[in-house]
Amino acid sequence: MPDVLTPDRTAQETAARAPSPGAPARSGLRALADEHLASTMKFLLVGGVVFLLDAAMYNVLVFWHPSHGWGQGLLHGTPLTAKLLTIAAASCLTYLGNRLWTFSDRPRPDTRRSIMMFLLINLIATGLQLSCLGFSRYVLGLDSVLADNISGTFIGQIVSTSFRYITYGRFVFPRR
Known about the structure:
Elements: H1 2-5, H2 9-17, H3 23-63, E1 64-65, E2 69-70, H4 79-102, H5 111-139, H6 145-172
Antiparallel strand pairs: 1-2
């Protein structure tokens, strides 16, 4: 009988901690935002630094000549080759930045598999970026500094970076 009259402290504590009806949705969204915000900001910072390097390297290769200065560079006639070279250099830096900082909290997967997935994803992303530049250069006939930077560097980078963000976290640096 004394058990019936004694209040159940566990039930009272649970009731006191129970969230309001709208709280689970808010706390779920908050947890999702907390989980992705830091890695998204790191990914964008790594990408931003590498973007600046990529743009600078591309402009030097295509629009700067060692003896004539700015105008038509050594690779002006082959902009896709220039972009491919700058993307390759940028991809190495991106892998290091994302592996060592953006996704450093994730377990280290098999390095060979991780690098192979990184290469595959970057080949696809490179194709997306080069198609933006190629469309501008060869379909629209635009070959100015502004046109190349808008199509290949800006629009191409947005398309390829969006693809990379979605795929890196799933396939290259998975949570497991």
